[in-house]
Prior knowledge:
Blueprint: H1 6-15, H2 34-43, H3 49-56, H4 60-67
Helix pairs in contact: 3-4
Amino acid sequence: LAWGTHSDNKQDSIRHGTAARGSRSGRARLTEVDIPKIDYMRDIEGKTWKEIGTYFGIGASTVRHAYDRQWWQHVPKSEVK
Length: 81
């Protein structure tokens, strides 16, 4: 046990695997498996944000945030070309 800042505590939770990131978050509508699917649908199939969102049952802006890894930084970007 150690005293630390909020940032220290967040980094510790990531390091120890206890952070509520991705599908472990109570608010998540996607899983880590869905993120590469979004990459594929956008990059290869050329789907719009809205089309992808409809497929997953989420909003277009949520899809864009997932694609840009704003909320899914721990999922590596696909190497699909």
